[in-house]
Structures are given as C-alpha cells and as structure tokens.
Amino acid sequence: MPDPQSAPGGSIQIAISSSARNGLVGYGVAIEKQPPRYRKPKLKTFSMTLGARSEQNPFSAELAAIAHTLNGLVGLKGFRFRLLTSNKAAALTIQNPRQQSGQGFVCLTYKLINRLRRKGNHIKILWVPTSEDNKLLGLAKEQARAATHEDAIPQAQVSRMKSTTLNLARSQAGKTHPVAVRSTVVERSERAGPTPDRHGTSN
Q1: Strands (DSSP E) found in the chain
Q2: Which structural domain, as residue segments, surrounds residue 90?
Q3: What is the pTM of this model?
C-alpha cells in the first residue's frame, strides 16, 4: 500500500467481491482506511443482496459494488485509493467501457472517480488473481457469501441490466478491422485479448 504520508488524507484500500449461490447474487466490500501520521487503521465491511440469479450475475454485482462504494466516499479529499477486485472482467470494463450490459454502473463509476480526483484524490483499480492470498479480499469474499445465504432477502432493487446487442451491432457497422485496446488496469500492462467472461466466477 502506498505510504500514507504521500497523501494529505492518508490511504484507503477497498476490496470488492461477489457471490452467486442459493439462487441469489450479492456482493461484499471490505474497506481499510489508513489515516496519515501512521495512526491506527480503520476497517469497515458490509454486504448487499442484490436479487435473484435469474436477473443478476457476479459481473453486474462487482460493478454495482464499485459504484455504491465510491458514492459513499465522494466527500473525501487528498486520499490515495486502491480498489481491488478478483473479477478481471469488471476491472477491464471500468478501464475500457464499451456498449455492453452494466454500462449504467460504469458511467456512474466514471463520474464518481472524476469527482474524487477533482478533490485531490488518487485512484488506482487493480485486478488481483484469486490465487493470491489477499486478506482484505478474503474479508470481502466472506461478506459476499453472507449476502447470498439461503434465507437472504434482496436489500435493494437494482435495475436489471438490459442487453445493448443491437446498439453494439450498429456501432460496429462498416468496421472491418478490430481495434487493439491496451489495458492498464492490472499492475502490469498487457494487450487486451478476447473479451473476458462478464459473468465472472461464481462463489
């Protein structure tokens, strides 16, 4: 994590995780706030049950979690943010928004990121492979699974993501060559390959 002394407000690390089980989809979030001057860090976790598996998926849950979390932090100034997710599709989507399901959440996330940056915050979104043992992501995963326990009740009516296949087809009309997109979401840059599975990995 970046040195808290390098930002006036300190640093904030946010871990996002989603879960799809028992016919439900939900997400979990773990936030570690490190104030400046090496004061004791503060940890906060929360979860949300989004809805039925027939209407939601882990990919949309990750996007909803990111937007919801950043919306609650837009009043902060001078912080360094590191947002961690093990869903590569969600991380790449935020970096390279296209005409696809979930774009409403992506647009909202961009607006929130811009608002945070205007207030002197620095934001970095990182994809962390599930093979890596990350304590904060582990806490977020526990919260996500709690949101999809057998008797969980959806806590919010998240708008169903509508397909924009027709719009995508129109936007691609006349194009004969694919466009190479370079991604810088992950810590090491790599040329984007085939579009990742937007459904992510069910927990």
Answers
A1: 10-21, 24-34, 42-52, 79-85, 122-127, 182-183, 190-191
A2: 4-191
A3: 0.70
